[in-house]
Amino acid sequence: MRSESPAPAGTVRSLLKGNVLWLGMVSLLNDTASEMIYPLLPLFLVGTLGAGPAFIGVIEGVAESASSLLKLASGWVSDRVRRRRPLVAGGYALACAVRPLIALATLPWHVLAIRFTDRLGKGLRSAPRDALLAESVPAHMRGRAFGVHRAADHAGAVLGPLIAALLLIHYADRLRFVFALAIVPGILVVLTLLKVREDRPPDARPAPTATSALEPAAFPQRRTFNRYLAVIALFTLGNATDVFLLLRASALGMAEVAVPLLWGLHHVSKMIWSVPGGALADRFGPRRAIVAGWMVYSLTYAGFAFASQAWHIWALFVVYGLFYGLTEAPEKAFVVQLAPATRRGSTLGAFHATVGFVALPSSVMFGLIWQQFGAPAAFLTGAGLALAAALLLIVLVRPSAGTRFAEA
């Protein structure tokens, strides 16, 4: 039977318990804390600490690169020690502890150190968390489980800026006070983590004879997985930071006060589409969902290239959320489909690391094309790379015959 044959039916309601529920709540609270700070960070760095735009780029580049390296290592460690929860809890706790310290920063390099440590926490937790989530549900519901988790994450990304905005209405220009209050959802993150359990079904337990992931017998679909990572890298090369979308909106005359509302709408759209996207991956297979998502991305980026009025941007941001829904959960579900049960942490770590490593040159390339040839050329380049990646995923990345998505 083909790997992307329909899987048994299941309901999202049945997922809202156990690790899916508690990891979703952790993600919601963590993103609430993070997004109380992140949208205001450029203003704080430039207006309060006197940093320049170049230094902001250095902060994000260094932080994300360190995070990518640690994602690869933490996934491998979680496979070796056969436990995920300590790495997940440690990663979230580290980030929640250091993040509010931005309120005490007096020099730009203080923020660099804090962001670096914050991203180390993300790198420590991401791959083990995704592996733990995959191992907490039946195989035919993994897409929906990842979708529920991403929806909770995006809900926090909507809630955080709203809380920050309300606080600033009552405490105008007191950015440090808002940053310090991010410790409240951070404490709730740590308390919620106490509900997460190490739930590993029999198919997730490493076999006694398993040795190295480099052995073909230990990873029958390694070649397919490597091709998948290569195609993911190609797509990511055309997937620049979403900051460029906001710059495009400003260039088309969108009022400054409307930009946060646009960003909030974007996260609402991502939240709405996350669970249906995961359900489509469960029903038709994650590869088909990813291809559909990348096609949506290509069309949306082409739309950004030819947009001429501000209302075009509003519509495109809503459609852009569909791309996230069709890809975020299915991309991870496809990794789990290809990987042996004993290699889930390390393969998810390799996936996260690939995306992280390519993200920086992707944004640099996009910015250079924009600067030299204009915004339409940059967006059309991204659209073309996404289309090429979708075609290569169809042609080159085909799971072995007999492998079903409903299996490990």
Q: What's the gist of this structure?
A:
The protein is 73% helix and 0% strand. With 408 residues, the protein is mainly alpha-helical. It folds into 2 domains: 186 residues, Up-down Bundle (Growth Hormone, Chain: A), CATH 1.20.1250; 183 residues, MFS general substrate transporter like domains (Growth Hormone, Chain: A), CATH 1.20.1250.20.
Overview of the molecule:
The protein has 408 residues and is mainly α. The chain has two domains: 13-198, MFS general substrate transporter like domains (Growth Hormone, Chain: A), CATH 1.20.1250.20; 217-399, Growth Hormone, Chain: A. 73% of the residues lie in helices and 0% in strands. The protein contains 15 helices and no strands. Helix 4 (85-98) packs antiparallel against helix 5 (108-134), helix 9 packs parallel to helix 14 and helix 11 packs parallel to helix 13. The protein is globular, with a radius of gyration of 21 Å. The two termini are 15 Å apart. The relative contact order is 0.16.
